[in-house]
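Writing this down once: the sequence line spells out the residues, with the fold written below as integer tokens. I am pasting one below:
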Amino acid sequence: MNDNLPLESPNGSGRVLARHDVPGPLRDDVRLLGGLLGTVLRETGGPELLADVEQLRELVIRAYDEPGSDALATAEQLVEGLSLERAEQVARAFTCYFHLANLAEEYHRVRVLREREAEFATRAITPDDSLPEAFEQLSAEVGHEEALRRLRALEFRPVLTAHPTEARRRAVSGAVRRISNLLDERDGRRLGGTSLAENDRRLIAEIDTMWRTAPVREQKPSPLDEVRTALGVFDATLFDVFPAVYRRLDDWLLGDRAGREEPLVRPFVSLGTWIGGDRDGNPNVTAEVTRQAAAIASERALAALEHETRRIGRQLTLDQEGTPASDGLRALWQRQRQLSEAVTVAAAAASPGEPHRAVMLVVAERIAATRARDADLAYVGPEQLEADLRVVQDSLLAAGAQRAAYGDVQQLVWQVETFGFHLAELEVRQHSQVHAAALAEIAEKGVHGELSERTREVLDTFRALGSVQQRYGHRAARRYIVSFTQKPEHLAAVYELAELAFAEPSEAPVIDAIPLFETFADLEASVDILESMLTLPQVQHRLAQNGRRVEVMLGYSDSSKDVGPVSATLALHSAQSRIAAWAQRHDITLTLFHGRGGALGRGGGPANRAVLAQPPGSVDGRFKLTEQGEVILARYGDPEIASRHIEQVAAATLLASAPTTERRNAEATERYRRLAAELDETSRHRFHELVRADGFPQWFAQVTPLEEVGLLPIGSRPARRGLSVESLEDLRAIPWVFSWSQARINLAGWYGLGTALSAFGDLEELREAHREWPLFATLIDNVEMSLAKTDERIAERYLALGERDDLAELVLTELRLTRDWVLRITGNAWPLANRRVLGRAVQLRSPYVDALSLLQVRALRSLRAGAEGQQKDEVQHLLLLTVNGVAAGLQNTG
């Protein structure tokens, strides 16, 4: 395979495409990797395999360049004529190509970030949504001291979730990382001769391994597999990235005083996780899994802290003469000796005349003992460890060694403050109906009666929370999210069950019950529910304990599936505004928790732009969101990209409450109230016209790989809450979005908008709203991205599988109408024409995704025609391979 990229986009008047706009280094990387993949295909499958791949590639590119030609029909005929074995090989070839193209693009992003960083002078204000720029802008509006106060109160809380969206196997991800490292080696050094040849050899070996690795797992991962996969980003990046972000900002704030004065920046990133705690609809997450998930995370955190403490200790070779120990350090040393004479003797022997080093080596041994649960030497909690580090830091300062105190020791303090001994706060989620059923059964049979397995598991969950808190502290697990909260009793049930789970109510764990408002009706009723929640004695007790802090979660997924993407967006915005006003009335510090997904139909899109579009008072320096599936690796898998993402979101969170930002959002919301009302009503009616049509659920299952997605072993969670496709009510939003994405329709991201815009009709006002109203701009821009990944020619082939011309025509008509109006509003000739990097990436991939889509349609046709026995198994396997490949090509799944 090579890099002959398409010159024009489909559906569109001969516009020159991104081929000539690809940066030279990126083009070189893609050409190199594509060429090596071609070599691997030729070596393993013979020249015939490479010829089939190349023929299909050339046809789909020509079909993309020449919309009126017969190339797509010819490509379809070619795909139909392949044997199943050859079709699988071709699907794997295109999937491998996408993995290689994706990693080349990601590496180029890193390259650009490095080059841009090198352009700025030391401590210069970097442009483009950086934290220094945000702080400067905020200072200009509210004054330096107030800006500093807000910075110190800043909170960014990403929460890792294990929704089944990561279609790429962990084994493939490992190969991707190794190939990326080889590109870095090639880029960072001027390799030549045998060194370049060795790099080539290692690259082709890794690509060969990727090609030979089965792209689809044989079995679904367990929840603990998901825990280990997600926490891989902690080892790879986050342990070092979080303090590095703090350090960069602090260096800029302090200028020449950096490293010699106490840092101004306090840790503002706090990691959370649902993985191993989210049991809503996932029977595989048990109380024992929750305990083990907490233990795995703690082991990772303690291992990292031990390693870092030992490294710093070994480097603190400051002698007693030049850097004498303080009284506090000597007292700490004596306490350490009392804990273990053997450990302190060994540390002293390794550090003659170096008291700070000796103390730090003992601290490292105490962390190791904490890992091993050696009660004689272990720390009770991270607060004890932090106190010891502060003693070391104060002693260094007293001796005049400021740079040692505020260097690596300060970074370690930040890491302890950020990760504690638990790494990430484990949050539990369960459906309100499960709690109600458990309470009803306990009321009938008694807490010690013959209870069902599900009710026993509910009680065991609270006992697991108690044991996690007892071992790792309250910070480790105290948030309990209640799915489908529809009345205050759903929150009271959590506290009641927690007390029932223990012999003495006082033994119950500390819990903050968090309402999750998901459906349109629940969002509308949210403030009434919250108002009643305040009357609960348990809530009043927690408010008195936690400084009147309340968290409320908003679900983007089900609200969008409920009323369509436009109405859901507006309903969420309205609910946030009303909840923020409610919190202000009651003197409550509110954190809104956004259940955003990676896909556009689930609240996806750039997080920093979404933050700046929030209603006044709803952010107030605190932003919490879910990071799901493939988004975790995309945002946090590389240290430079992770730093950039964290900085962008933190900067937006800081600026969201700036007077100019709040005023702009408030004024625009008021000015375009009529527009919002009309878009809401019209789009919702149009959406319901489709999804409430007779036979729609069955048709949806026919025209998309919905049922087959449920077979794909890409997550421990079932795709449905136990119901059939007779009803969409209990279909999870993830397969709803994933299936439309696979069919190249992306209906969940745009349906209903075209009709609503057309009915409103005032193009000038719509363009004005796009310029001046951040919420509307974000909506339109996210729909434009969704449309860029939609292909009408391919979509028609999926829709034809359902034999319902009326529903197919509804979808296609709305697609054309939406595209037309969005392009008229943005002024673009085609979707993303004004977003150079993103538009280029989408357009260059599209023809290659088309090849996989044609293979998928072939498989679906065979399954819908009633394939049986071994042939059915083989066809299903081909389909699952294409699902994996399309996900890689589109770069967003669920």
